[in-house]
Amino acid sequence: MTAITATQTTTAVRPGKIRNRVLWTLQIVLGLFFLIASGGPKLLIPQTLMENNATAFSIPLALLIFIGLAEVAGGIGLMVPRLTAAAATGLAILTFLAAGFNVFLTGTPELAPFPLALTAIFAWIAYERRASITALRTLIQR
Questions:
Q1: Contacts of 57 by beta carbon, 8 Å cutoff, 6+ apart
Q2: Beta carbons within 10 angstroms of residue 108's beta carbon
Q3: What confidence tens digit (pLDDT) does each residue in 96-132 have?
Q4: Burial 20-42 (b: 16+ CB within 10 A, else e)
Q5: Residue 78 and residue 129: Cα distance in Å, rounded?
Q6: CA 82 remoteness from chain centre
Q7: What is the pTM of this model?
Q8: In angstroms, how far is CA 9 from the centroid of its own chain?
Q9: pLDDT, tens digit (0-9, with 9 covering 90-100), for 27-64
Q10: Which residues make Cβ contacts (< 8 Å) with residue 77, sequence separation at least 6?
Q11: Do residues 73 and 87 touch, judged by C-beta distance below 8 A?
């Protein structure tokens, strides 16, 4: 039998704490990004966005506003512990579709790596926070 010392116990717990801090940092930074820089302008100044960049926003105004709502809701959801996994899953789908939009519809495949990187990050967040889906389902069933 081997004895576990206090040092071994502390180091065994530490990576979880570090991972949790990294996840929360990503969630807050990306949540604020989607609130302020991505979804917010689509809701506040959609006409200006469509007029200034007609090639990138060759979609109907109603769809642009819907995407803005989804991004703002996802940004808020990333920062609410019970909604984190659901929000990250939704944003992963949204960013994956954005990469496909860049490649296939606008003909700008050079813009696809950023949304694909975000897709991978959101998938990782959703996987790590998957317990919040169970908590959310339990809350809804009450």
A1: 49, 50, 64
A2: 12
A3: 999 999 899 888 899 999 999 999 999 999 999 999 8
A4: eeebbebbeebbebbbeebbbeb
A5: 10
A6: 14
A7: 0.83
A8: 33
A9: 999 999 999 999 999 999 998 888 877 555 578 889 99
A10: 31, 83, 84, 86, 87, 88, 90
A11: yes
Q: How far apart are CA 85 and CA 89, in angstroms?
A: 6
The Cα–Cα gap between 112 and 89 comes to 19
Say how many C-beta atoms besides its own lie within 10 A of residue 74's C-beta.
27
Name the residue type at position 70: A
Q: Six-digit token pair at 30?
A: 């990306």
DSSP the chain: --PPPHHHHHHHHHHHHHHHHHHHHHHHHHHHIIIIIIIHHHHHSHHHHHHH-TTTT-S-HHHHHHHHHHHHHHHHHHTSGGGHHHHHHHHHHHHHHHHHIIIIISS-GGGSHHHHHHHHHHHHHHHHTTHHHHHHHHHHH-
